[in-house]
Design a protein that fits this description.
The chain is mainly beta. It has one helix at about 1-20; strands spanning about 35-40, 40-45, 50-60, 65-75, 80-95, 105-115, 120-130, 135-145, 150, 160-165.
Length: about 180
């Protein structure tokens, strides 16, 4: 019976991981939403505070989404500290407060440091914001709290590619009808 209790305890610990809210500068309501994780396989290590998910992994909490082929979640003092996602590509999206569109990121590897609200994107990384801006590089650091981006790799051949769309001229703006 002891092994059954150990498995049951591990499953309960895994559920605690899934239900612990993530901090973030996203829609304020996201933090009060439950976390849902789906995968083909899951391994939970309560002693070390690590859970690993493999195969079509999806994490959802409100507007926050993380997708990949493999995901690990690390806890520190029963709080989510790091979410690491691998994929071809791994994807992240979340809607900031006051925005009409999601911030979207993708890369071969994504690290989300929840306490500092930092995303580290590595390998064919890109970020799209407001449907108007795109940053591409081999390595991108994205601070969700301050909405700042640092891009560029260590290699001399790595280039940063930025696309900024111009504002619409006043003549193309949506006309208002006089009253």
């Amino acid at each position: 019976m002891a092994p059954v209790r150990a498995v049951f305890r591990a499953l309960l610990a895994g559920l605690a991981v899934l239900l612990w809210p993530l901090p973030g500068h996203a829609l304020s309501s996201d933090r009060s939403e439950p976390i849902y994780v789906e995968a083909d396989k899951a391994s939970l290590d309560d002693k070390n505070g690590v859970s690993v998910y493999e195969g079509n992994v999806e994490l959802h909490q409100g507007t926050l989404q993380m997708l990949g082929s493999k995901m690990s979640i690390t806890l520190n003092n029963r709080r989510i500290e790091l979410i690491y996602v691998e994929g071809n590509p791994a994807r992240f999206s979340q809607r900031p407060d006051g925005a009409d569109t999601d911030q979207q990121a993708e890369a071969e590897r994504i690290e989300y440091h929840t306490d500092t609200q930092q995303l580290l994107l590595q390998g064919n990384a890109s970020i799209r914001q407001s449907g108007r801006e795109e940053f591409r590089s081999d390595r991108i650091e994205f601070n969700l709290r301050s909405n700042t981006v640092h891009a560029g790799g260590d290699g001399s051949g790595d280039r940063v590619h930025i696309t900024l769309q111009p504002d619409k001229p006043a003549s193309e703006a949506t006309p208002t009808t006089p009253e």
